[in-house]
Amino acid sequence: MHSPITGTAAGVPFTALPPAGDGPAPLIVTWHMLDPPRSDAAFAAALPMNDVPAWRVHLGMPMCGARMVDGNMAAGLELVRRDALMAALYPFVRQATEEFPAALASLRTQLPVDDGPIGVLGGSLGGAVALRILADTEIPVFAGALVNAAIRMRPVVALITDDYPYDAESEKVVDSLDFVARAGALAGRAPLLVVSGELDHPALRADAVDLVEAVGEGSELLPIPGLAHPLAEEPGIEPAPQVPLAREVDAHLTAWFRGHLTDAGPDGPAGAAGTG
């Protein structure tokens, strides 16, 4: 097994896991959680997907991992306390989405990845980034997956504060991050696996069910018994051994992406779906 490769792509820190073989290979890109594992390196350790014959490149979210201020999460937590939606959640998702095209172009120059459709995976808040890549860009995607994802931002805000002072601007923002309401932009885009821990927050579990029903054909709900919201133990910044439930999620993601890589050739259904 190859060692992880770390670097930056257009200013975005990453941890890359090479496939077993040599030569150009497909690319799967991930965005991590703000709960453990809360860095690209920690997410790579929790969900390495080692048996997928593709590069797995785990990108760092803003204010996390290598981009933490003074090496800790205090500055990011202060933004959450100041204004959960408009100072933290939305800017993090917006920045991660907006910086991705340049990061992707940089990764293609640094790593021996092919130029075909990519896979995308997001956990928790990183799930909102993956959903924005699917809904708001035309980047070709052969398959996507979410784990305990922020599918609707309003319930995520409610987990932080139960009396958030919405105004016209923040209402517009939170509605833009309601991917159940925006399911039409996801339908037919790429096959989508929605992993939902049965001990995750009830509102997030309900959103996972609603998303799969709204997207319809090509989407699949995968409940994981015993799984709460995090995928690793605290503090979740440095790589750590896989916990058993993360290993189970990892096995399902491996099977999902392996199966859709088979279909991602020029004549395969996933490759065709990813060109829109």
Biggest sheet: strands side by side, in what order? 1-2-4-3-5-6-7-8
Class by helix and strand content? alpha/beta
Can you tell me the number of structural domains? 1
CATH topology value: Rossmann fold
CATH architecture: 3-Layer(aba) Sandwich
- Mean pLDDT score: 92
Brief overview:
The chain has 276 residues and is of the alpha/beta class. Helices cover 39% and strands 17% of the residues.
Structure description:
This protein is an alpha/beta fold and 276 residues long. The protein has one domain (5-273): Rossmann fold. Helix content is 39%, strand content 17%. Helix 1 links the parallel strand 3 (27-31) and strand 4 (55-59). Helix 2 packs across helix 3 (84-98) and helix 3 (84-98) packs across helix 5 (125-136). The chain is globular and about 55 Å long. Residues 265-276 have low confidence and may be disordered.
Helix and strand arrangement:
Elements: E1 5-9, E2 12-17, E3 27-31, H1 40-46, E4 55-59, H2 74-82, H3 84-98, H4 100-110, E5 118-123, H5 125-136, E6 141-147, H6 153-160, H7 168-176, E7 192-197, H8 202-215, E8 219-224, H9 244-262, H10 269-273
Parallel strand pairs: 3-4, 3-5, 5-6, 6-7, 7-8
Antiparallel strand pairs: 1-2, 2-4
Helix pairs in contact: 2-3, 3-5
List the main descriptive attributes of the protein structure presented here.
Rossmann fold; 276 residues; single chain; alpha/beta; 8-stranded mixed beta sheet
